[in-house]
Amino acid sequence: MEEIVPVFTLFNGKLGFTEGIIVQWAIIILFFIFSKIFVRNLKENPDKRQSVLEIIVEYINNLVKDNMGEKRKGFAPFIGALAAFILLMNLSGMVGIAPPTRDLSITLSLGAVVFIVIQAYTIKEHGIKEYFVGYTKPVAVILPINIMERIMLPISLSLRLFGNIAAATIIIELIYDSLGNIGWIAQIGIPIPFHFYFDIFDGAIQMLIFIMLTMINIKIIAEH
């Protein structure tokens, strides 16, 4: 896989914007626009569009309640937005755009967001004093282990997502390169099953793993 380089830079090259960052912005903008469109004119008797939206929202709400408990159902919008964002980035390969999640800096930023949310929620639940006391439980001697565990969570989430998507991207590129040696016409239909597996199936699975581990860790750490 080729080196990821900035598409353009600012401040004499000190601030670079890669293709992945630009695709992220495009996804955020499109997600915002379609959200505004889809939630307009909601009706008491829903039409087909609204019914589909309500099914998705209900599924996310139930997923959060089943894994985090009724007390934390307020996390449903965060988990739903995170899931949609990661899934759309993973699926961008279907339209010929390299998935942003093949860039480690982007998956690390996602892990950092999860880390901040977990720590902020735990402090909100227990207070700043009890938050730091929690690092010494069950015994003070394991303080370094608890600190390392907190730090490794966002890193492991990031590396898992990055590794799987980057590997899938490399495989797809190798498939196209190999078929290109046969002839351009071989690149038209043969790669379709591979796209279904590596872009759709693997992309959805990696998104699901990311949000499931996020929910589980929010619940576990908040109950420390």
TrEMBL record:
Gene3D superfamilies per the UniProt record, alphabetical: ATP synthase, F0 complex, subunit A
Keyword presence, Transmembrane helix: yes
Any one GO molecular function term: proton-transporting ATP synthase activity, rotational mechanism
UniProt-annotated location(s): Cell membrane; Membrane
A matching Pfam family: ATP-synt_A
GO annotation terms (biological process): proton motive force-driven plasma membrane ATP synthesis
TM helices/strands, residue ranges: 20-39, 75-98, 104-123, 157-176, 196-218
Membrane topology type: Multi-pass membrane protein
Cellular component GO terms held in the UniProt record: plasma membrane; proton-transporting ATP synthase complex
Keywords of this entry: ATP synthesis, Cell membrane, CF(0), Hydrogen ion transport, Ion transport, Membrane, Transmembrane, Transmembrane helix, Transport
SUPFAM superfamilies cross-referenced by the UniProt entry: F1F0 ATP synthase subunit A
UniProt similarity note: Belongs to the ATPase A chain family.
PANTHER family: ATP SYNTHASE SUBUNIT A, CHLOROPLASTIC (PTHR42823)
Protein purpose: Key component of the proton channel; it plays a direct role in the translocation of protons across the membrane.
Official protein name in the record: ATP synthase subunit a
Origin species: Clostridium grantii DSM 8605
Gene of this entry: atpB
